Amino acid sequence: KHIENPKHRLEIQDILWRNKILFDPTPSIINIPPQSAIKTADHPPIYSKQYPASSKDQEIKFQETQKLLERGQIEESTSPWSSPIVLVKKKDKTMRFCIDYRRLNAITIKDAFPLPRIDEIFDQLSDATYYTKFDFKSGYFQVPLSKEDRPKTAFSTRDNHYQFTVLPQGITNGPATFQRVINHILGPTRWKYALAYIDDVIIYSKTFEEHLSHLNEICTILKNARFRLNPEKCEIARTQTDYLGHRIKNGEIRPSPTNIHGLLNTRLPQTADEACKFVKAAEYYRKFIPNFSQIAEPLRKFVPTTRTQRKKGQKTIITLTHEEIKAFEQLKNFLTTDLVLRLPNNRFPFKVQTDASDEGIGAVLLQIYPEGDRPIAYLSKKFTQAQRKWSPMEQECYAFICALDKWHNYLSGITFIWETDHKALTQLNKKAQVNKRCERWRLKILEYDFKVKYIPGSINLMPDYLSRSPVEDAEEDPDETTHLISKSTQTDISNVNNHSSIVAAVETRAMKLRNKTLNDISNTKLPSDSLNTSIEENRTTPFSIEELIQAQQNDDYSKNILNNIKKYKNYMTKDNLLMRRLNPPVPYVPQGDFRKTILQIYHDTAANGAHFGRDKTIHKIKQRYFWPSMYKDINNYIKSCIPCAQFNPRRQKNPGTLRPIKPPEGVWQLVSMDFHGPITPTSQRGNKYIICLTDVLSKFVITKAVRDNTAQTAIRFLKEDIISKFGTPRCILTDNGTHFTSTLMNELIKQIGSTHLYSTPYHPQTNGQVERYNSTMDAKIAALSNLRKTDWDDQLSFVTFNYNTSIHSSTKQIPFEMMYGRSPVLPFDHQDTNVTLSYDSEHAKKLSQFLSKLNEQAKIHIIKNQERYKQRYDINRSDPTYNIGELVLCKTLNIRYKFDVRYEGPYRIIQKITPKTFIIQHVKKSTLYRQVTTDVLLPIFERIY
To answer: Residue limits of the Integrase catalytic domain (predicted)?
Structure first.
């Protein structure tokens, strides 16, 4: 929306649309070699015991590890290394899952890979006019970790041992590793029109036309690398932007207002002591301020020269004269301009000074120059009432945490000094246990490399002054509302409203296709009092107080309470209305239509409910009404809401436990067949598909590159490549594609005496043998093919042969041996010169015994593998049972737009084929039948009200 030129806006939207995969929320791992980030030389493995945890915490650990396991971000481990899991309580009382890598970080060899010099970055940006900023979605988790380093990231739950497959958060070399990766990805575009400071990527150009080209190039590079971006934190084609703590506009680079806000907006001194502290704080930088003594002279009278003056003047209320105010403002301006405040320069070390008082916190970010310390930014923040009650150690530590949050871009990936006048904090990283709040903060700073230095309060002047004259409003502990330890990779939703144009641009085309009236709605001007109107609408009661009083008097339960009100301490009356004693008191709602009306209004209506979930609806209703079974009734009402079921995404695993197919008794008794493709590009011979047949027991595969996926092609493949060479299989399993369900195909299978089995529609697990080979085959063929990938069909036979002559993970046998009864001889194998011919019956008997043994071993291994996979698959997965006659909703296939119905229906179950497979009939369209499995069904619950 900030791009006023319609043509320019469309051009930007077109680029974003073509690269919309960048904003896909599905986790992705970039296609680079796995990174080595944890070098520990010959240090023996470190094993840390797990911290004690309650059964509830153990369940949280289990759920979090399952999420990471499903995303492929961790794997099971046999590593001798182990770091403990820490659960940190968030503001909403839920827990955050963390790994405490302090001991691992202590022995890790620090990666010296350089971060870009910030002053050089600003030199590059100063000539540009247009800027685009990208932020990665959980950036660390997109970087693959080397197999050598994975065991070092290991951690344990109560029942298992895991290790990360991606770069974990909290390791000391995380920033350097990520910087190396992004430098490699951006390649020669760096320092020309793109730069990255860890996960903050910026594209800069002089003209809009150049910016379009640069934006398209970087988007293509990131898309090819399989990166995923966080749209809420991206900015596109801006003429003004904040980057690395500075505001950039029209070639000018100034400190961001947030960096000088802490000092620039500080109030006038109210007491002599405050004026004294300000003068002393400013005096710390006097060598950089011309004529300091002359400017500060009007305020000098507040600086005591004796102990008696110091004691008397501490709380003396003062009113500054015009000259004194002028001196105060002049010194503030000097401290926030280029004469004192400097752009950051990586050639000089950073230093953070912090302090806390009864009023709030103060902090200064400095760099140590040869001529003295130069400030980079200031921070000043008030305490909440709760924070005022914290211990001094907690308040002082909180100041450092706020400084890290504020200046993360400067401090991540470098070594810096933290100076504090609270001596106990020098042991923060050495003590085994601190109090819970400091322990949580200590986990937050794992990724930073710093040294704590104690300085006397008489030197810590500027932070002390800022803490006693705090500017920024108080807020809750930022760590309690942060979802990830690593700020460099976390998703920050605080700027969603500012950057929602990214999401809008990606979604624009789909939205235009489905609803042209959206533009009319969005352009409608609301009346000036619309906000107040909406508030009043939310406060509207569904019935009058008089009607509710009458209903209470007609209800036996409430009538009994009213008649014996003194016995019921949890109830009270107000103007004849029975109220529940809550804070504040709320009316009691008797049984009947009143409860139903309340449920409808606070769940179904647009103004008050908007079909939000159970917890939000309960919270709304319990603040306004009460009845004994309200939690149960609300839960049932929402559970039985058809629109919610049809449109809400299912956040749990698909229901239905795994029911593995029993392995066949022998080779060639059950085979599965499928087409794979169309494949792009088409080969030089014009082939676009691969037809594949797999023996279910031996896993032996036969493949052929073909031009199309018609029934005639499938029949020709069966005749010429299967039956004439290997014989007739007993059963053939296929999907429900028209090439396999055609009359010609069924007649052929009937003629050869085989049985034709079909997999359940839209349930590829049934025909998983071919699906598994297809996924394996693609990568291998691509690796062997030429640059244009047009000779992929030439490589198909080699990939198939190597697959058949390699041991299979589920059978622990070689498919070739099970098929032919002999070991394969590969090219370049050494062969014996002697040839033995044997035709006696003994040889045939031995061969039969050998094959039988292979078959039995394969079946045993398949069953074990199925049991192991089933155990993992069934974790946290419901196994619903359905009966004939029940009403259900069925998952919508091929959803095109965001607002499409996710579940169709209602359907009625009319036939049960297996415990997981059913025939359903549409209630309103009696001719519509479907064969489905439980993972696409959603039950319809009976509603109480």
So the answer is: 659-823
Whether residues 234 and 276 share a domain: the answer is no
Nearest Cα to 487, choosing from 377, 417, 409, 400?
A: 409
CA angle 888, 890, 893 (to 5 degrees): 175
| Dist CA 318 CA 41 (whole Å) | 63
What's the total number of domains in the chain?
5
Q: Is residue 271 part of a domain?
A: yes
Whole-angstrom CA distances from 382 to 261, 265, 477 are: 13, 13, 12
Top pLDDT among 259 and 378 is at 378
514 assigned to some structural domain: no
Domain of 588, in residue numbers: 539-639
Q: Is residue 712 part of a domain?
A: yes
Alpha-carbon gap, residue 756 to 264, rounded angstroms: 81
- What percent of the chain is predicted at pLDDT more than 90? 13
Query: What is the CA angle 645-647-648, rounded to 5?
Result: 70
State both tokens at 656: 């239905």
Q: 877 pLDDT exceeds 70?
A: no
What CATH number does residue 931 fall under?
A: 2.30.30.140
* 419/475: higher pLDDT: 419
84 upstream amide cis, omega within 30 of 0: no
pLDDT in tens, 479-511: 443 333 333 333 333 333 333 333 334 433 333
| All residues at 6 or more sequence positions from 613 whose CB lies less than 8 Å from its CB, including other chains | 638, 644, 648
Q: pLDDT tens-digit profile of 283-318?
A: 655 655 656 666 777 777 777 655 544 554 456 777
Contact of 449 with 415, CB cutoff 8 Å: yes
E-strand ranges in 606-727 read 670-676, 689-695, 701-706
Tell me: do 346 and 319 sit in the same domain: yes
Q: How far apart are CA 555 and CA 590, in angstroms?
A: 6
Report pLDDT for 379.
Answer: 80
Residues 411 and 450 occupy one common structural domain: yes
Last residue within a domain, chosen from 199, 220, 244? 244
Residue with tokens 């930014």: 377
More confident residue, 549 or 347: 549
d(CA 153, CA 894): 39
Is 508 contained in some domain? no
In this structure, the answer to whether residues 387 and 290 fall within a common structural domain is yes
Measured CA to CA, the distance from residue 453 to residue 366 in angstroms comes to 14
Query: What are the backbone angles phi and psi of residue 454, rounded to the nearest 5°?
Result: -85, 135
Query: Has this prediction a pTM greater than 0.85?
Result: no
Q: Nearest to residue 818, comparing CAs of 941, 927, 726, 691?
A: 726
CA distance 661 to 681: 36
Give me the pLDDT at residue 529, please.
36
Q: Encoding tokens for residue 371?
A: 């001529």
Q: Strands, E, within 206-349: which ranges?
A: 235-238, 240-243, 246-249, 252-255
User: 340 with 469, same domain?
Assistant: yes
Under 8 Å between Cβ of 505 and 12: yes
Q: What confidence score (pLDDT) does residue 589 get?
A: 92
Residues 545 and 444 in one domain: no
Given a contact cutoff of 8 angstroms between Cβ atoms, the answer to whether 934 and 926 are in contact is no
Question: What mean pLDDT is predicted for residues 248-254?
Answer: 69
Say yes or no: 239 and 262 in one domain: no
Which pLDDT score, from 0 to 100, does residue 266 have?
66
Q: Write out pLDDT tens, residues 310-339.
A: 554 456 777 778 888 888 887 777 666 654
Say whether both 810 and 892 belong to one domain.
Answer: no
Q: What is the mean pLDDT of the chain?
A: 78
The CATH number assigned to the domain holding 217 equals: 3.10.10.10
Task: Write the single-letter amino acid at 896.
Answer: R
Per-residue DSSP letters for 383-436?
PPHHHHTS-HHHHHHHHHHHHHHHTHHHHTTSEEEEEES-GGGGGTTT-S---H
